[in-house]
């Protein structure tokens, strides 16, 4: 598989900060994969997302070392405009995504396309397609500032998807949604991933991460604490020390083991939950 993201020994410290936010972080992401980043609050997840799309070092000022490469482009040597053609970010706070220059949702969705000189005809077609994908057709004529948090979250994701990036970086992009809305958005993201888009997702829902991630990376105090498949990461005996939640699948397996049950003869199934239980009992 082709690497589309490569981070080598990357460290970053915000200007005037009293500590380094990211410390010698290294990892790579393969094309078309679903890569999840988890960790406690303050572990550096959002900072890493900003580095992947070029907001670090081109917007947020600070001291950095190491390198971040997106599809063979050195992020530090590229412009945000160039990077936006290849990688898109959906912020944790969707209101940070708004341009605050658009009078309608349709104009908000088209904002990035206009910056890239897309024709009006193509723009209208793309807005209609993304609005249908995000189920926001009835919001197109509304002012973005009059929407609820959940509606803005959908618009924010739509404004990123409309640019058709090869890589989608999601920083807890369902934070403003109820459980049903969150799953609807996640289903869209998963479908896009199945169609070939590389997804890098920060999420706090470990059940969802365990179910869908190809690789999971745990950040703790700015450092990589673990990196591997969901089974490898969540069944690691040190997992609870990293201040992350453990999926119920693993808790169940450990509980059954503590109660004296032998589940080594569980029938082999494709269901990942059973695989994780079996792994936990080794």
From TrEMBL:
PROSITE patterns: ABC_TRANSPORTER_2. Its main location: membrane. This is ABC transporter, ATP binding protein. The keyword Transport applies. InterPro entries: AAA+_ATPase, ABC_transporter-like_ATP-bd, ABC_transpr_CbiO/EcfA_su, ECF_ABC_transporter_ATP-bd, P-loop_NTPase. It comes from the Bacteria. One of its GO terms (cellular component) is ATP-binding cassette (ABC) transporter complex. It comes from Bifidobacterium mellis. One of its GO terms (molecular function) is ATP binding. The keyword Membrane applies.
């Amino acid at each position: 598989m082709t690497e589309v993201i490569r981070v080598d020994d990357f460290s970053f410290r915000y200007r005037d900060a009293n500590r380094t936010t990211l410390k010698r972080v290294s990892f790579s992401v393969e094309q078309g994969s679903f890569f999840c980043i988890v960790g406690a609050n303050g572990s550096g997840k959002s900072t890493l997302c900003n580095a992947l799309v070029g907001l670090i070092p081109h917007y947020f000022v600070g001291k950095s070392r190491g390198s971040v490469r997106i599809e063979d482009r050195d992020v530090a040597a590229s412009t945000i405009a160039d990077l936006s053609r290849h990688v898109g970010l959906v912020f944790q706070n969707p209101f940070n995504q708004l341009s605050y220059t658009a009078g309608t949702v349709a104009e908000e969705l088209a904002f990035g396309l206009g910056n890239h000189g897309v024709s009006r005809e193509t723009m209208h077609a793309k807005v209609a397609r993304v609005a249908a994908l995000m189920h926001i057709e009835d919001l197109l004529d509304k002012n973005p500032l009059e929407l609820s948090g959940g509606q803005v979250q959908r618009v924010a994701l739509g404004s990123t998807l409309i640019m058709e990036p090869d890589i989608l970086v999601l920083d807890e992009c369902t934070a403003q949604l109820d459980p049903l809305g969150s799953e609807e958005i996640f289903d869209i993201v998963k479908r896009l991933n199945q169609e070939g888009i590389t997804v890098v997702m920060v999420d706090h829902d470990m059940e969802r991460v365990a179910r869908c991630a190809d690789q999971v990376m745990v950040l703790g105090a700015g450092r990589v604490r673990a990196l591997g498949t969901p089974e490898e990461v969540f069944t690691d005996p040190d997992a609870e020390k990293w201040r992350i939640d453990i999926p119920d699948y693993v808790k169940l397996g450990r509980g059954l083991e503590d109660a004296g049950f032998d589940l080594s003869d569980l029938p082999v199934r494709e269901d990942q939950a059973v695989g994780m239980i079996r792994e936990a009992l080794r």
